# Entry
Amino acid sequence: MISIHDLSFQYSAGNSIRFPDFTVTKGEHCLLLGESGSGKTTLLHLLGGLLRNYAGSVKVDNTELAQLSEASLDRFRGQHIGFVFQRNHLVSALSVEKNLMLAPYLAGLKINTERITEVLSGLGLAEKRKSSVTQLSHGQAQRVAIARAVLNKPSIIFADEPTSALDDKNCDRVIHMLMDVAAQNQSTLLVATHDQRLKDKISKQVKLSSS
Amino acid sequence: MSIFTLVWNYFKARPLNTAINILLLSLGIAVMTILLLFNKQLEQKITENARGIDLVVGAKGSPLQLILCNIFHVDFPTGNIKLNEAERFAKHRLVKRAIPLALGDSYQSYRIVGTSQQYAELYKAELQEGNWWKNTLDVTIGANVGTIAPLKIGDKFASAHGLAEGGHTHNEHQYRVVGVMKRTNTVLDNLILTNVESVWEMHEEHASEEAHEDHEEHTELRDSSFIPSPLVPSIAKGDSVKEITSMLIQYRSPMGAIQLPRLVNSQSSLQAASPAFETARLFSIMGVGVDILMAFAYVLIFISGLSIFIALYNSLKERRYDLAIMRSMGASRTKLFVSILLEGGILTLLGSVIGLLMGHGVLVLLSGFVEETQKAGIDGFVFYPEEWIILVGSLLLGLLCAVIPAIQAYRTDISKVLAGN
Ligand SMILES: Nc1ncnc2c1ncn2[C@@H]1O[C@H](COP(=O)(O)OP(=O)(O)O)[C@@H](O)[C@H]1O
Ligand SMILES: [Mg+2]
# Structure
């Protein structure tokens, strides 16, 4: 599903970030651990095609990402990948429902309102459907962000520091929620974090060393 | 969900800003529309009213006044001219038609015009009901006189001296309405037509008994030696007492334009004015005012364009995360570029549609409630092809204002924005 070989990336000349080789198989859950600044976000962006021009090999779904044009990378990302960010980044001009509709619309897929109902009620957000996202609590906003990431039934979910800003109780809830929705949709889950509390939640772990 | 829903929701998210931008632009467009409609219709009216009249011959004075008074019936006469002097030119070989006009009185500010049947023919007037005037003191009224004054067939009324309402009224004699004309959309709609003799009779009431007898003698004198005047057939040719206000002339050939004005101006106490020349002068005088208002409209539109640009530019800063997140969900650069362009385009399109409606609305209201506009025949429901240009132009303005913000959106470094640095 995901395989990385001899990968490195440079933001600026002479400052190369090297990544260890690893593979994640389909449906597997994997933890990407490392200190702040070790390159976790960079790696997720490389895997999601948000960053290009890497050295080495990044294969997702057996496709070498460097071989895709920018436009096909956009399409690939929309149809196969769901992102969850530490900051939820909901579109504040839109309602909860419209935020969710954005996912299939931008990915060029058909909008399925039943699927929206299913995902929203699965995350306990059914009655927030028409609310403005500015009226949501932090926890609710995070659940909307997760709902948005899984709506298209992506084959891969990337989560970047989903729990860093949360207390223990909410940290627990969010990681289980992510693992549950990933399992329900048979998605591969890759969680990048420096949060030590997640260490015993997911057994497969890849360590990035800050160098 | 579509690109339009997205754009619409961004508008709704900052309602005040959107409303002000639309308002600014629509005001500019409204001023432009009003000017366009007013100017076009006025020009059209003026040319229609002057059509078929090559020369106006009247008393010496301002030539523009002569035209305004005798063609558009908005100014006062420059004075009177002797019938026998006018006759000399009426029978000139270069003159095809000569129509006498005797002005001076009005009813409720509708001017009473003593003239011949040819005057109605000039504007291809037709009867709505009743008959054309025949006897002295019979009148046939224009469409507006029938509806606004209002007068109907059989009504009798006393005229007032002068043009304004409330002048000295000639109570001793009363006009009688015998017919109503169909709407011609010319100045005829606001006129009351009668024969020249009626106008004389109204004013002769002031003259002495003697003159009255004299008048009766005249009619008795109709024997074999009577040669009718070419302008007023009931009067003998060469009458040195009777006066008219002016004479409208249609040339027989283009040679007329070269010879007649010079002839009239040099050889008599009369003055000749060319409607074509004077209206062109009038347009150029009006043009200055129109240009100033038009410049004002352009300033409004420019400011609204600037305001739309600033609004988009600023909102884009706040929306960097939105744009990045949309890219992470599969939106292409082009899609974001187009959505920002559309935002500018839809905003200005809305503004110009509202502006056009406002412009037409103002004229509809004006023509509905202000009698002067109504009389001038300005219609708010008329649409011109130039309005398409306004519409397309403002769409282009919107796209232009959105180009720089759209390029910014296109260039957003999503990875950097999402990493939250
Ligand atoms: N846009 C950028 N330009 C230059 N350097 C960057 C940029 N983003 C991240 N870096 C650098 O790359 C390294 C990895 O950063 P990042 O992937 O954000 O790590 P993490 O997510 O593990 O905290 C850091 O040293 C950081 O300073
Ligand atoms: Mg990071």
